Amino acid sequence: MTSLYVHPRLGEVTLSQTVRARRISISVRATGAVRLSFPCGVPQKRALDFLEQKAEWIGAARERLARKRASLPSQLPPEERKARIEELRRAAKADLPGRIGRLSEATGLKYEKLSIRASRTKWGSCSGSNHISLSLFLMTLPEHLRDYVIVHELCHTVHHDHSPRFHALVDRLVGGREKALNRELRAFTIR
Question: Which fold has domain 78-186?
């Protein structure tokens, strides 16, 4: 169930109460939009109390994202943007299937199908039926971060969550560098 809540200081916040949520969490989009997700068994008041406790953190995250947006180059004209996306799509189709194949073989983690999309919200995802979707914008990342994202998604074929067991598997497969690689990846934005 999704609804809109107007916070006195933060403005509009999307409330999302779902069976998929394991805990109360807050996400702040690049646009500054805030989403509060919480499990069905958690009362809305408790989730809103959590939001209140994190109001300063949300403000700081919004400022950081605004600075990041300000430092980005201005938008390309539509024709150039379309040409750039097609160039990235060709590069992704040439690189990503072989890369995921090699990493799947090296790790022993099997996936059902690979899709390459122009996703701007996430680098990759893995469905419950182990279909992996990768963003063509991975081609803007250094190769070692492309590999990290793919290993992350392959680990979802074993653990379809972000549990400690999932992170332990990722960490083991990236040589104990999961936190460092994740930090490095967060410095990049999909554009």
Answer: Zincin-like (3.30.2010)
